Amino acid sequence: MKDEYGSFRQIMYIHVTIISIIGLSLSKLPSNYLPLLSLSQGKNLINKIMLVLVPTAIIFGLLIYAGNPLLCKFFGNPTLKEPLKIFSWVVLFTIPTLTIEGIYATYKKTHLYGIYVVTSKVLFFVLLIIPIVIYNANLNKLMLFWAIHAMSSLVLGIYLIYLPFLKINPLDCKISYKNIFKFLVPLTLTSVLGILFTSSDQFYISNYFGEETYADFSNGSIKIPFIGVLIGSISAVLHPYFVKKLSDSDSRKEITKTIHSSILKSITLVYPIIIFVWFSSRDIFFILFGEEYTDSAIFFKVISIYSLFSVFVFLPIIIALKEVKFYNIVHVLGVLTVWASQWLILNFTTSPFVVPVISLLVKISIIVLLIYKIISRLQVNFRKLVPLTSAITLIVACVSILIPIYILRNMLILELWQNIIFVIISFIIYFSILFFTNKSFKVRFINIFKQFTSS
How many CB atoms lie within 10 A of CB 320? Predict the structure, then answer.
């Protein structure tokens, strides 16, 4: 069962890889042009984008179907052959919906996109998780249920894509197919470089340590859902804002304040959760996956450190500054470094944990270079752009509260239900102490909460 779960996680990685390759550019495409167009012209642009998306979906679906022997070889797992053939339909149905986020971010209706995401996730749970629990479905059946889910999401997605343009006649816009591809190609290259970077972890773990270790690594690679949604939402909203503001040279101070404010809000909401989950990861993985997967917590502790740096939402400003070329050059160097370093180190050690450690160090180096580029282009001081003092202060406060709780936990031997209760009570105590003893955190948290409730 663990081997089959490892195979499922490998297919999940292929899915994320494909969507990431074209998803970044397609999600940013509408928000790069729609702010400058009327609704009638916007509908014309969306029609053009869909004419690009449909053949792209067909091509990727065929590549997965015909190229499954190569993918089996890459992962060192011949059992993927038949599931990948069914999975090709998932890819075909998913790609045409990738512009939804950019459309609704532009028109400031992200709540509708949120409803779509939640609906899709619930449907995913019903069609995939329940068959496992009730019918003990094998991997081929899971892929079939996933294809049904993707087709259902496609129907809802197409409706949402055209919802803002209902009863509006399209008018020809100046955005040509040449303009579309000129925007898409560099960002697609950006995505490919990102995939090549993360593929090193997948490749070395799969081929050097086997499917069971890959299953541990894959579970440890999961991201805290709230954080991904928050960072993604901030990125989607900031991109059209930067596109408008950077056309005015007098707006650079305002842009700097916006970046500083968005990072500070992200730190306030994200850091306490990341640090708590980091300290409680072994218990959390025991609760979610069972004792068999507690080693996943070690991978998670290494990988999740990067989340502390992911709050620096730099990509929207990099795109708006037209510095995608620099971004790609930095990532080319990162890809070469991570693949070579991991290969070299694995010749001297048998520990799989060095693989994510090397990736983490290279990722942090990339972020430092990108922040330096943004600072030089905006001609601002680092501290005006990044609230470093606030970040360090909050980290110290969180860690100080959690260390006694962590020591107490290591003195106890708990069953599953006791683990659940301990994690819940620990979080309540931890957050309460942080909220009532850290005045700056309390003020920022209350202000953010008021903004959400009033919007």
Answer: 20
Rg, Å, the chain Cα set: 23
Residue 427's pLDDT is what? 92
Q: Which two tokens stand for residue 261?
A: 């404010």
Confidence check: pLDDT of 451 > 70 = no
Condensed to tens digits (0 to 9), the pLDDT of residues 239-256 reads 777 766 665 655 777 888
Q: Smallest Cα–Cα separation from 14: which of 96, 70, 97, 58? A: 70
Q: Is 351 exposed, middle or buried (CB count within 10 Å of its CB: 0-12, 13-18, 19+)?
A: exposed
Predicted local confidence at residue 247, as pLDDT? 59
pLDDT of 44 strictly over 80: yes
Identity at 419, one-letter amino acid code = N
Residue listed under structure tokens 């909401």: 269
pLDDT tens-place string over residues 435-447? 888 777 877 877 7
- Secondary structure string (H, E, C) spanning the chain: CHHHHHHHHHHHHHHHHHHHHHHHHHHHHHHHHHHHCCHHHHHHHHHHHHHHHHHHHHHHHHHHHHCHHHHHHHHCCHHHHHHHHHHHHHHHHHHHHCCHHHHHHHCCCHHHHHHHHHHHHHHHHHHHHHHHHHHCCCHHHHHHHHHHHHHHHHHHHHHHHHHHHCCCCCCCCCCCHHHHHHHHHHHHHHHHHHHHHHHHHHHHHHHHHHHHHHHHHHHHCCCCHHHHHHHHHHHHHHHHHHHHHCCCHHHHHHHHHHHHHHHHHHHHHHHHHHHHHHHCHHHHHHHHHCHHHCCHHHHHHHHHHHHHCCCCCCHHHHHHCCCHHHHHHHHHHHHHHHHHHHHHHHCCCCCCCHHHHHHHHHHHHHHHHHHHHHHHHHCCCHHHHCCHHHHHHHHHHHHHHHHHHHHHHHCCCCCHHHHHHHHHHHHHHHHHHHHHHCHHHHHHHHHHHHHHHHC
Structure tokens belonging to residue 306: 């990067």
Task: Match 């998803």 to its residue by tokens.
Answer: 23
Phi-psi region of 432 (alpha: psi -120 to 50; beta: other; left: phi over 0): alpha
**Phi, psi at residue 66, to the nearest 5°?**
-80, -25
Looking at residue 362, its pLDDT comes to 95
Q: Give the separation between CA 332 and CA 302, rounded to whole angstroms.
A: 23
Confidence of residue 217 (pLDDT cuts 50, 70, 90): confident
Amino acid at position 247, single letter = S
Beta carbons within 10 angstroms of residue 22's beta carbon: 21
